[in-house]
Request: fold
Amino acid sequence: MALRNLKEFCIPAKREQVGAVFDKYGDGALFLAGGTFIHGLEARGLLSEVEALVDIRKLGLDGLAVTAEGIRIGAATTFAGLAQTPDLNNAAWLGALKDALAYPPMQIRNVATVGGCLAAACPFFDLPTAFMGLDGRIAVQGSGAQREMELAELFVGLFENSLKPGELITELMLPKPVGRSTSAFIKLEGTANDLALVNVAVRVSVDPDGICRDARVALGGGVGDRVLRSPSAEGLLRGQEITDKLLRAAAEAVGQDIKPMTDHRASAAYRLAMAKVFTRRALNRALGRLN
Ligand SMILES: Cc1cc2nc3c(=O)[nH]c(=O)nc-3n(C[C@H](O)[C@H](O)[C@H](O)COP(=O)(O)OP(=O)(O)OC[C@H]3O[C@@H](n4cnc5c(N)ncnc54)[C@H](O)[C@@H]3O)c2cc1C
Reply:
């Protein structure tokens, strides 16, 4: 049995109860949210050291709040819950979220959570790339005070996050960009329902005179050991008039910031070429939403 050392399964109703379990078991305790990623680890025999599972679904961490600043999403919100975001289908700036939510299969959407997909630090998932393209920040609660961090601080390696034992992601914030803004997400998959070979999320803010005021370009799917931003592409776009030539140059520039991997599904050279193609397509899709 893969969880052969499991001694406790806790379903705390208050956040204060979480600390006691981690005090007792330290690294031997693990949060459980939707369980879709954990199930894969268990099936591969990778959870033999786990002594306590802490189910977070009764902690009241699900739900959405739309404010003037943007959207606050509880970490235990499922993808299906996230799809209920008001104005998701009409607000151009939320285009990347709408696009990314279309990929996970229905069974996964109904249980997988926002916090779980971020904490897994898997660069092949789609939602984390979309969240990074939308400039997402998370709130984290440990034994001390709550703190906030950018997603770039959370992802520190392949399946590796920067959380300390017992630290819980409580919330994701997606700030509403200023001005006329739009976003999009695109994924390249080998077969239907496959994890991404490459995925790209972009967000662009454009003045009425066609000048790009701000840009975010995020890439995942094996273009590095984590989801990455492309400062080179963002820098090229910022302050420039949006033209086809500029979009092509920005797409080409992502090559300066990514380190694609070779695995059994694709070579690094193929991922590099596709990252550029998909960045251009994502930019075109986002800008198309403004019209
Ligand atoms: C068949 C299948 C298809 C999939 N297809 C897609 C797809 O198309 N696109 C896509 O983006 N993803 C896809 N996924 C991946 C899916 O998005 C993740 O498995 C899911 O988001 C993980 O969330 P969870 O709530 O199930 O996490 P869990 O499995 O419960 O936990 C994952 C990890 O996060 C930790 N954790 C959970 N919540 C928190 C928290 N709040 N704070 C700190 N740590 C926490 C857990 O301890 C664990 O280490 C697929 C998965 C499967 C199994």
Residues 129 and 282 are 12 Å apart (CA to CA). The pocket of flavin-adenine dinucleotide is lined by residues 30-38, 40, 56, 75, 103-105, 108, 112-113, 115-117, 119-120, 125-127, 163, 168-169 (CB under 6 Å).
